[in-house]
């Protein structure tokens, strides 16, 4: 029996195909087959089959599993292949009987084979078309994407092997097909050019290079990489065998590694094994090295080893180093979402926040595209499980991924070809070397017995030894005194390699804590209340309720005591065990009132600063519906001078603000929850953080309802409706807009009602009902005039004008929009001014009056760029290009559309396809498809 996934999902015996059943049943079979011979939990199966599990999903799954069990028993002649396991199921089948696993095994074997071409040829022959053909949903789509990437890598490796055997004609056809599927893949293009040249088709190779060069310029505004240029030059020179693998040009990627570990000692065997793994050929599908402690012990030095080794081999990764702490075992349970890590890497790779796609899958694709072919080292520290890591794996074997975790991450070993590296406590000799590095040889050699006692008491755990050494450095006391202190806690410390690491390390932490001044000790305890991963000095001052200068000195003391790390200027973080220890101390030593006041001060600091920043980003906003109370005593919100400083602060604190909002919601601080959502609103809107935007306003809806504040609840429903609309959830968008309208009507809030009608007009436009959209816009205008609200009148006038233009009445459009523009300019509402200019440009273009249309569009684009709006910029560029084309200026149209296409591609927006079509029709986008 064979199971086939690399095409339609099929079960076969010899030449016979067995009927599996409907698509959903084939989906269940595929979800089991990808983990053949390994248990799959029921929850995982449900997640793979349904994007959103419907009611009765478990019951439906059980029905499919029953049918599949009967089918497989018929196929195998009565053998039970589908087995029930605790919490899930296992397809008890040799993985080699599944074409996907056989494909991967053949590719793996080819990497060490003297003649890899036959193995790779056999692997490619297993593909029968679109993998998982006919199966819908996110899991199937994501799997197809990953598997196609593997197939592409295998095809390139096969082509190289055939070229080495002087068989260029064999590979040209498949490479041309692959190049059509991956038009920007330079590794594919390089081997195709070599094959064409070797087959005597050099002119065709040069034409393909020229097309690709134009394609890269049009799509990404980039030139071909170094390898492709080298092959091109070799063909021009007539060299018979162009170089196969020149290294791509170095990418500008910041070295994000933390500082190397001071006094690192030991681990020679582990460092050597990592060096050997690095020396392996970078081909096939293996892209990760997994470091995990067998016992799962925290503090065993996983991060130290990873960071130290990364520094020793940094020069072998000329295109950059990336690092992220995934907080997999965060004591508060706030594990980092992979999407957050991807967004951080996109920031590091130079993608402006406004151009990061809103869709998480598009963000992953953008991240992988940026790393394609680059020699980059990626350190994923403190991972929770394989699922947290997978979205962060690049799609190119040129990058190396180093993962640390307290878990073994077996899933990565099985499915991603990762290499496990077990890490245990230090040997006695390595422990002594660590103390020598920290304390000096003379001091260690002078008290050999005390050193042995310290090593034994610390159970050779690197973290415990490091903290003990810090204590010895700070006090300057004889090591015998430290050994005596350790001996008092010896019973607990002796269990470090088998017990709970938090309780066992506590005594070691206490020695450093005991050296602190009272104010620094209090601050350390209160840090256990902070909900985010790191904090700035101002936030620490708010927690303590003290002036910043004094708190800055306390933070420096904590850093010197190794109880805190200043990972960036003025920003601090802690190891998760230290955070747990701090949280325990504050519960034990600070009263409930003291803890509550500290949290209130912290939330007030974040809330007041965020709301002030929001006002700087959008000065013409209406007064906040839930007014802020004055900051409590001891809180000094950040003074943000201008738009730029507000934007920078919100970007730096975004994750902390989301965590603070979550803490406020959990603790019942409903006003603060709503205010934080308001403070984040403009930043998240303009920077395209749409998923966060939806989450914050959903929390704000609940908070306002519990406050009994109808206007605030209506406002929250409005903003949530906006987010749902952008995320393409029209039913939810309408539901929230209509709920907002009911709330405003009940509260006799005419301004709110008018705002909702403007929202409904936009939703109607998305649904293609411009008549209904105009009706809502007119109602909004009537309300604005009734209450005499000028800014709202201007917005409504522009919206009415826009829909008149869409419905063909350009004269009316210009009348309404002209009136709106005059009001917006007088009020200084730059955002509305840009929107109105866009509408005016649209009306003039429809009239064939191209000069005023171009001028209006260009003014709108300049404002959008200044405000940091990405999508509206691209949208208006499209219309500007259409106007230039209609005016008979194709080069100007091409320039506008190229710029729009670049933005849409960075956003992962579907409009990119429409712009490509325009460029093709213009004749300026050869090879684009």
From TrEMBL:
InterPro entries: AfsR-DnrI-RedD_regulator, BTAD, OmpR/PhoB-type_DNA-bd, P-loop_NTPase, Sig_transdc_resp-reg_C-effctor, TPR-like_helical_dom_sf, TPR_rpt, WH-like_DNA-bd_sf
Domain (OmpR/PhoB-type): residue spans on this chain: 1-93
DNA-binding region residue numbers: 1-93
GO molecular function, one term: ADP binding
CDD domains (UniProt xref): BTAD
Pfam families: BTAD (PF03704), TPR_12 (PF13424), Trans_reg_C (PF00486)
Sorted UniProt keywords: DNA-binding, Transcription, Transcription regulation
Residue ranges the record marks as coiled coil: none
UniProt entry tagged with the keyword Transcription regulation: yes
The family this protein is said to belong to: Belongs to the AfsR/DnrI/RedD regulatory family.
Protein known as: SARP family transcriptional regulator
Organism lineage string: Bacteria, Bacillati, Actinomycetota, Actinomycetes, Micromonosporales
């Amino acid at each position: 029996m064979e199971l086939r996934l690399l095409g339609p999902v099929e079960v076969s015996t010899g030449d016979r195909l067995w009927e599996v059943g409907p698509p959903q049943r084939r989906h269940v079979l595929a979800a089991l087959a990808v983990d053949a011979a390994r248990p799959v939990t029921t929850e995982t199966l449900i997640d793979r089959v349904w994007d959103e599990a419907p009611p009765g999903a478990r019951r439906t799954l059980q029905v499919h599993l029953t049918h599949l069990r009967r089918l497989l028993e018929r196929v195998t002649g009565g053998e039970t292949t589908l087995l029930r396991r605790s919490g899930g199921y296992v397809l008890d089948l040799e993985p080699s009987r599944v074409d996907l696993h056989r494909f991967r095994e053949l590719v793996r074997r080819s990497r060490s084979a003297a003649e890899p071409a036959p193995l790779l040829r056999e692997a490619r022959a297993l593909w029968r078309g679109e993998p998982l053909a006919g199966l819908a949903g996110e899991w199937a789509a994501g799997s197809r994407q990953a598997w196609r990437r593997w197939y592409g890598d295998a095809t390139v490796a096969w082509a190289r092997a055939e070229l080495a055997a002087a068989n260029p004609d064999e590979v040209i056809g498949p490479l041309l097909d692959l190049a059509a599927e991956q038009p920007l893949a330079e590794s594919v293009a390089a081997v195709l050019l070599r094959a064409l040249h070797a087959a005597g088709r050099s002119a065709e190779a040069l034409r393909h290079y020229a097309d690709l060069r134009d394609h890269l310029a049009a799509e990404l505004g980039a030139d071909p990489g170094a390898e492709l240029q080298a092959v091109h030059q070799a063909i021009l020179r007539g060299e018979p065998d162009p170089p196969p693998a020149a290294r791509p040009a170095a990418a500008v990627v910041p070295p994000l590694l933390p500082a190397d570990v001071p006094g690192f000692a030991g681990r020679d065997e582990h460092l050597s094994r990592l060096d050997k793994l690095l020396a392996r050929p970078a081909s096939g599908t293996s892209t990760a090295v997994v470091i995990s402690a067998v016992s799962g012990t925290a503090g065993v030095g996983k991060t130290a080893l990873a960071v130290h080794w990364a520094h020793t081999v940094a020069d072998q990764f000329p295109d950059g180093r990336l690092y992220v702490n995934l907080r997999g075992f965060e004591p508060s349970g706030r594990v980092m979402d992979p999407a957050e890590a991807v967004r951080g890497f996109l920031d590091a790779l130079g993608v402006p926040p406004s151009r990061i796609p809103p869709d998480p899958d598009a963000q992953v694709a953008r991240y992988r595209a940026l790393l394609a072919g680059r020699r980059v080292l990626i350190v994923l520290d403190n991972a929770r499980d394989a699922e947290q890591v997978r979205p962060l794996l690049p799609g190119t074997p040129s990058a190396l991924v180093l993962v640390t975790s307290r878990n073994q991450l077996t899933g990565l070993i099985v499915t991603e070809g990762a290499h496990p590296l077990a890490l245990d406590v230090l040997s006695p000799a390595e422990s002594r070397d660590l103390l020598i590095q920290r304390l000096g040889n003379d001091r260690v050699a002078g008290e050999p017995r005390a050193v042995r006692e310290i090593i034994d008491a610390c159970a050779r755990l690197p973290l415990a030894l490091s903290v003990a050494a810090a204590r010895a450095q700070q006090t300057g006391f004889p090591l015998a005194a430290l050994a005596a202190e350790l001996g008092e806690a010896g019973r607990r410390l002796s269990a470090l390699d088998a017990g709970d690491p938090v309780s066992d390390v506590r005594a070691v932490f206490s020695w450093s804590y005991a050296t602190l001044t009272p104010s620094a000790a209090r601050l350390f305890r209160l840090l256990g209340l902070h909900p985010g991963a790191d904090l700035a000095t101002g936030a620490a001052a708010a927690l303590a309720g003290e002036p910043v200068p004094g708190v800055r000195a306390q933070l420096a003391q904590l850093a010197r005591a190794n109880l805190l790390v200043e990972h960036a200027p003025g920003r601090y973080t802690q190891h998760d065990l230290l955070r747990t220890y701090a949280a325990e101390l504050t519960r034990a030593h600070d009263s409930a009132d003291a803890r509550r006041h500290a949290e209130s001060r912290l939330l007030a600091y974040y809330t007041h600063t965020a709301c002030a920043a929001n006002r700087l980003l959008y000065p013409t906003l209406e007064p906040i519906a839930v007014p802020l109370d004055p900051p409590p005593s001891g809180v000094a919100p950040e003074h943000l001078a201008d738009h730029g400083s507000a934007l920078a602060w919100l970007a730096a604190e975004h994750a902390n603000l989301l965590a603070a909002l979550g803490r406020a919601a959990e603790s019942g601080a409903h006003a603060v929850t709503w205010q934080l959502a308001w403070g984040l609103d403009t930043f998240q809107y303009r920077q395209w953080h749409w998923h966060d935007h939806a989450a914050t306003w959903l929390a704000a809806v609940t908070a306002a309802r519990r406050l009994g504040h109808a206007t605030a609840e209506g406002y929250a429903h409005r903003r949530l409706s906006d987010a749902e609309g952008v995320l393409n959830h029209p039913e939810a968008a309408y539901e929230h807009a209509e709920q907002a309208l009911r709330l405003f009507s009940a509260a006799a809030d005419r301004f709110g009602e008018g705002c909702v009608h403007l929202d409904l007009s936009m939703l109607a436009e998305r649904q293609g009902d411009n008549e209904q959209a105009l009706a809502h816009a007119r109602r909004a205008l009537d309300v604005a005039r009734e209450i005499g609200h000028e800014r709202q009148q201007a917005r409504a006038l522009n919206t009415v004008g826009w829909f008149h233009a869409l419905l063909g009445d350009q004269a009316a459009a210009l009348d309404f929009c002209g009136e709106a523009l005059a009001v917006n300019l007088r009020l200084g509402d730059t955002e509305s001014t840009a929107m109105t200019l866009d509408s005016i440009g649209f009306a003039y273009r429809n009239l064939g009056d191209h000069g005023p249309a171009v001028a209006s569009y260009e003014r709108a684009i300049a404002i959008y760029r200044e405000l940091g709006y990405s999508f509206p910029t691209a949208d208006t560029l499209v219309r500007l290009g259409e106007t230039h084309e209609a005016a008979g200026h194709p080069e100007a149209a091409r320039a506008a559309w190229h710029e729009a296409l670049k933005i849409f591609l960075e956003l992962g927006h579907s409009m990119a396809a429409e712009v490509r079509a325009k460029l093709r029709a213009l004749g300026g986008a050869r090879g684009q498809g």
